[in-house]
Specification:
This protein is an alpha/beta fold. It has 13 helices and 9 strands. Strands 1, 2, 3, 4, 5, 6, 7, 8 and 9 form a 9-stranded mixed β-sheet that branches. α1 runs parallel beside α2, α6 crosses α7 and α10 runs antiparallel to α11. The radius of gyration is 22 Å and the shape is globular. The termini are far apart.
């Protein structure tokens, strides 16, 4: 499908200005690819009750100006205004559905089963693409037909400002993906890969709910993928109070232990290194759980949790953030969990 022009889409909500509301990407220049026709790009958005962000995501995909793109939305049965938004843009969607699923990784895999493109990507319903992102990606793949994955710069932002730029880097060694939690060397929203390498990697592991993207990129590396990192802004990652990385951070560490157990030896980590990495992850879980216990059971229970953590790992006591947590437990009156952490 050809990406629609700005005037073809429904008008933006009142007061919404800038990209992707009242501006669009430049139309794709076929001369960039010389004699190679543009590859079809299939993009999937898993969605669930993110209506406050979803329309911005959708418009950032549709307004890319690319000549052969298909967009698929797999909604998990949202109860907010998400379905109204999806229906509003349904004429430009390859496929969409709203029904209960088995989680985000299941939704993404289901979306790619409907895809017919040779290049794949997924963008979450609270993130968005930069203008001309697909131009930069398609050109990078066209310049080298053996490339399996391309990643660009990911802009990290919140409702107030652009916070930082996440410059892409393919790790020197795949153990980077298993050694610590949240270890990523490029931003998932700013990455695209071939249908072929997706198949070789076996898609996304549906038993994982938090670290499935990192596990997927690890499998891509283990499959021998050739990668290219480009200096173009491709996507924006939104940090907000309802995101999983904020509200359920401990779960990322728990799944990181699963990935470490599964791939640590394959990635060349010694038994000692694996034990040391697991200890770091478990200590981080204990640290986060102390805040959670404070929120749900009160300060006294949290202090007991903190003491158990120190008894299990005495060396933690001298870490700056542990000392900070102790000061909060003793002196700070928190109004909500965000203030605690």
């Amino acid at each position: 499908m050809r990406c629609p022009n700005l005037y073809e889409l429904p008008p933006p909500p009142a007061g919404m200005k800038g990209w992707p509301w009242d501006s669009e990407s430049t139309r794709f220049d076929f001369q960039l690819l010389r004699d190679n026709p543009p590859q079809r790009i299939s993009i999937v958005t898993p969605s669930f009750n993110q209506g406050q962000f979803l329309e911005e995501t959708i418009r950032s995909v549709l307004l890319q100006g690319y000549p052969d793109m298909e967009y698929i939305i797999i909604d998990g049965g949202s109860t907010d205004n998400s379905i109204d938004i999806i229906k509003k843009y349904s004429p430009w969607l390859k496929y969409w559905v709203s029904e209960p699923d088995r989680g985000q990784s299941n939704a993404i895999n289901r979306g790619f089963k409907k895809a017919t493109g040779s290049l794949y990507a997924y963008i979450n319903s609270d993130d968005l693409y930069e203008p001309n992102a697909l131009d930069a990606i398609a050109t990078a793949f066209a310049e080298n037909s053996s490339i399996d994955l391309v990643a660009g710069i990911c802009v990290v932002f919140d409702q107030e400002r652009e916070k930082r730029l996440f410059h892409p880097l393919w790790p020197d060694h795949l153990s980077e993906y298993v050694r610590t939690t949240f270890s990523s060397t490029f931003g998932q929203p700013a990455s695209f890969w071939t249908k072929d390498i997706y198949g070789k990697a076996g898609g996304f592991d549906e038993s994982l709910s938090f670290c499935f993207d990192r596990e997927f990129f690890l499998k891509v590396g283990l499959a021998g993928a050739k990668t290219k990192m480009i200096p173009s802004k491709i996507a924006r990652f939104r940090e907000h109070g309802q995101s999983k990385s904020v509200t359920q951070a401990a779960r990322f560490h728990e799944e990181s232990i699963i990935i470490l157990d599964r791939y640590g030896e394959i990635c060349g980590l010694s038994i000692q290194d694996r034990k040391a990495s697991e200890r770091i992850m478990r200590n981080e879980i204990a640290y986060l759980q102390t805040f959670s216990i404070w929120k749900n059971k009160g300060r006294q229970s949290a202090i007991l949790s903190f003491l158990r953590m120190i008894l299990n790992s005495p060396n933690l006591f001298f870490q700056r953030k542990i000392l900070g947590q102790m000061r909060r437990l003793l002196f700070f009156r928190a109004q909500n969990v965000a203030e605690l952490q």
